[in-house]
Design goal:
With 163 residues, the chain is an alpha+beta fold. The chain has five helices and eight strands; from the N terminus they run E-H-E-E-H-E-E-E-E-H-H-H-E. The protein has one domain. Strands 1, 2, 3, 4, 5, 6, 7 and 8 form an eight-stranded mixed sheet that branches. Strand 4 and strand 5 form a beta hairpin. Helix 1 packs antiparallel against helix 2.
Length: 163
């Protein structure tokens, strides 16, 4: 079942940018050329974004391909498709990769079992609040937010998975 999503490379060293394009191209099965712009939050870095379309699960494949470079900051989203939840992946250097299921409007959702587990293992309100914040990707969101605001007005490119 086809779906679509967005790749946001919030910051990448200039020397790694071509490797990022090659990684995306390997997953999508077609050449990729992104429009790289300076990242105002990190002047020595570049940023790019593009939307993509492909088979369900492509978002996870893209995130796995991009996490090979632990120094880049990125997000990959995949929209929900019939019978399949949407997904969001966020990567921050030193923090690693976050993965969450998303609702139709893009909110991170936690399953009933996950919530029960968080409640059962928490030793009070503060530990529960901290565990829920982490399960919702809060620390990743907080670190990426300045990079997201720096993206206002950046052009978007559409990529389609071949095959």
């Amino acid at each position: 079942m086809p779906t679509r999503g967005v790749i946001y490379v919030h910051s990448s060293p200039l020397a790694v940018s071509s490797h990022v394009e090659w990684a995306i191209a390997r997953v999508l099965g077609a050449p990729v050329r992104l429009e790289w712009t300076p990242q105002p939050v990190e002047p020595s870095a570049r940023r790019a974004q593009c939307s993509w379309s492909g088979a369900t699960g492509t978002g996870g494949e893209l995130a796995a391909a991009l996490r090979q470079w632990p120094m880049i900051r990125f997000e990959v989203t995949e929209e929900p498709s019939p019978g399949v939840d949407g997904e969001r992946f966020m990567h921050v250097p030193g923090r690693g990769l976050f993965h969450g299921s998303t609702s139709a409007n893009g909110d991170i959702v936690l399953s009933e079992d996950r919530l029960r587990s968080l409640i059962a293992t928490s030793r009070g309100y503060e530990t529960l609040a901290h565990a829920m914040e982490k399960a919702l990707g809060g620390p990743w969101d907080a670190e990426l937010e300045p990079y997201r605001h720096a993206a206002d007005g950046v052009p978007m490119k559409l990529l389609t998975r071949v095959g």
